[in-house]
Specification:
mainly alpha; about 70% helix
Length: about 350
Amino acid sequence: MSIIQLLVRIGAMLAGAALLACFLLSASRAALVNRHRGDWIAHGVGRLVCSAVSRLAASRAQYAAVQDALAWILPLYILSLIVTWFLLVQTGFSLILWSSHIEPSFLKAFLASGSALSTLGFLTPDGAAGQGLAILEGAMGLGVVVFFFTFIPGYQSAIQARELRIAWLYARSGVTPRSFVFVEWLQHSGNIDANEVWERWEDWFRLLAETVAIAPVLAIVPTLHRRQSWLSASAVVLDAASFCLATMEGRGMAAASICRTTGIEALNLIVSKLRSHKAFGEPAPAFRSTRAEFDACCARTAILGAPIKADLNAAWQRYLELRKEFDRPLSDLAVKLLIASDIGVPQPVVSAA
């Protein structure tokens, strides 16, 4: 064997080991390691899948049809990630089998690697070294299968937990959700200054941020019910909290403030995670209510017994200041998620003194 052939074999051995290391790190980060940065291989696969499906969804005329197309993102993402992992392992072991002369050709090594990885065993290499590698590769293949059947329910559970709160909000703020309708319901039900309501939504925002940080693709997965959106629900809750903080005083306002801060942090985190995802929607205007709607809500909640502040002009200015803190992430996410303006995000801005 010439020196060049030896160097090629050594390089193939190192490349195979590197591919196996990439697989182990990727699988561990995606399934086990609890860190916001997630895994770059999983994120890359997610970006490719989201780009392809979003391009198709953007061509749909009706928002219900857009959601139907986006619903394929999660299954395609999981299948694509598993295929990517299988290719990493199979190619890595193929290079090791070929470079160590266990198999005479790369094609034979690739077939033997596939035999072990799929646990079919139709082409097990001869010799103790080859059989030992086959056992190790078969264990990795079983690990990927176990991931498929155990980690998918985790994704589904996270989505279902998100959907429960969304359905709860839509039932109280209308088919086309509006924050002022939600505020009036809170006052009418006696929950506007209750810590429990705001704390539950604070927990919801934290769960949303954690799941999207690990798997950004989950942010683009649509809701189970047509014409509903987690982004619209976020906008309604944040706007309602801003309205209460600007116009009212009470024991529940501290909880509303924390809920609002947590929600804004969650939206900014999701925007950062989806920054590399190509947008196919049109630029979105800010989501904001008019002064007339603001005054009308103040009047109705005051009739219901809410402690509305006397200076509505100052309250309106404060409300606008609070809204500016999350107008931008809402608009950015509306474009990324192909959200239709007629379901609550975004709404046209109408200025009023």
